[in-house]
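Exercise 7b. Backbone tokens:
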């Protein structure tokens, strides 16, 4: 498999992930305090939204790369 086809498949899979889930979340360690035997930690949940047009563009770009690599 050529690197161009691999890139196309990654774009298509990423676009499908974006359409299916619409985003992802992660936990960010924001504050930490160690005062003697007392340990305080604050975690903050962050949400990253993937715009619909980016997902559709990634799928379309991947399909275009696949089609153009077959002709060339």
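Sequence design result:
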């Amino acid at each position: 498999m050529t690197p161009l086809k691999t890139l196309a498949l990654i774009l298509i899979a990423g676009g499908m992930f974006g359409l299916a889930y619409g985003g992802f979340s992660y936990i960010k360690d924001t504050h930490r305090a160690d005062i003697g035997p007392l340990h305080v930690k604050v975690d903050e949940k962050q949400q990253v939204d993937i715009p619909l047009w980016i997902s559709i563009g990634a799928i379309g770009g991947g399909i275009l790369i696949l089609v153009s690599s077959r002709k060339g």
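Instructor comment: The beta strands are 23-35, 38-49. The chain has one domain: 3-71.
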